[in-house]
Amino acid sequence: MDNWLCSLRYRYKLIENSEYEGVKVLKSAGLQGKTVAVFGCGDSASYSDTFCGGMRELSDAAQEAGATVIGSVDASDYTYDDSEAVVDGRFVGLALDDVNEDDKTENRIEAWIAAISPLL
Question: Alpha helix locations (H) across 3-101?
Fold first, then answer.
């Protein structure tokens, strides 16, 4: 398998223990030559200071394992206070908030798939 899609839950700036074990496995997975796209689901109102932050942990782990990470998304169309998943004004993957911005979810998914598909 040459391509991966990844997501995890992220609460209060701590990855849940079972998922952290998965991140450790991902870091040592030997992903040289692989392409990884990351997505996350969050609540930008209730967790506006950590919105989809777990995507950064996955993106960093995949890169550490040698993968090429694709699928960053412009963060300017989102309402949130802070996120570790934003680098240079872009989420490291597709951030979704089906609680507060459900009206944007379908278009965001379609645009993201169209953007990453040629790279997979």
Answer: 17-27, 54-64
Judge residue 86's burial from the number of C-beta atoms within 10 Å of its C-beta, 0-12 exposed, 13-18 middle, 19 or more buried.
buried
CA distances in angstroms from 89 to 26, 69, 93, listed in the order given: 25, 16, 12
Q: Whole-angstrom Cα distance, residue 37 to residue 15?
A: 19
Through-space distance between the first and last CA atoms of the chain, rounded to whole angstroms: 11
pLDDT tens sequence across 49-106? 888 888 888 899 889 999 999 999 999 999 999 898 999 999 999 999 989 999 999 9
What's this model's pTM, rounded to 2 decimal places? 0.82
- Specify the CATH number for the domain of residue 41: 3.40.50.360
- Number of domains within the chain: 1
The pair of structure tokens assigned to 58 is: 């996955």
Instruction: Find the domain containing 62 and state its range.
Output: 3-119
